[in-house]
């Protein structure tokens, strides 16, 4: 097998980290953004676990950065807990779980981002969850 053939095969392993128009439509069912980069939940937060709220919050941060509404796409535990109105220690525990499951990454001490490669999986699961609870 030639080196170029191997490179072509290896490209099949690469996960896209771009947000498609289809995914944007799914995101709109859960969150919106203000021009100041604040994340607004469209779905009542009570229908979502704290884990899912954290993922959507971090997704919102990523999108706000893409739109240049904010300077960074990461958030601290303090920012997330304040933004969600959730207990600091509960958020810290869920972030630790999400990190070990490779849904979030710690980009520096105490700063987290969402793993965009898992976005479709997360949104599909959330859509199913919301439909069940309706």
What's the short story on this structure?
The protein has six helices and five strands. It has 134 residues and is of the alpha+beta class.
The total of beta strands comes to 5
**Which CATH class?**
Mainly Alpha
- What is the helix fraction of residues, given as a range? 40-55%
Largest sheet at a glance?
3 strands, antiparallel
Distance between the termini: 53 Å
- Which structural category fits the helices and strands? alpha+beta
- From the 3D structure, determine the CATH topology: Arc Repressor Mutant, subunit A
Distinct helical segment count: 6
Taken as a percent bin, the fraction of beta residues is 5-15%
User: Order of helices and strands, N to C?
Assistant: HHEEHEHHEEH
- Oligomeric grouping of the chains: single chain
Low-pLDDT segments, ≥5 res: none
Number of domains: 1
Major beta sheet, strand line-up: 3-5-4
- Rounded to the nearest angstrom, the radius of gyration is 16 Å
By CATH's scheme, which homologous superfamily applies? Winged helix-like DNA-binding domain superfamily/Winged helix DNA-binding domain
Average of the residue pLDDT scores = 90
CATH architecture assignment name? Orthogonal Bundle
What global shape is seen?
globular
Fold blueprint:
Elements: H1 3-11, H2 21-27, E1 31-33, E2 39-41, H3 50-66, E3 75-76, H4 77-84, H5 88-100, E4 104-108, E5 111-114, H6 119-133
Antiparallel strand pairs: 1-2, 3-5, 4-5
Helix pairs in contact: 4-5
Walk me through the structure.
The chain has a single domain, classed as Arc Repressor Mutant, subunit A. It is globular, with a radius of gyration of 16 Å. The strands form 2 sheets. Strands 3-5-4 form a 3-stranded antiparallel beta sheet. The N and C termini lie far apart (53 Å). The relative contact order is 0.15. It is an alpha+beta fold. The chain contains 6 helices and 5 strands. β1 (31-33) and β2 form a beta hairpin. The mean pLDDT is 90. The protein is 51% helix and 13% strand.
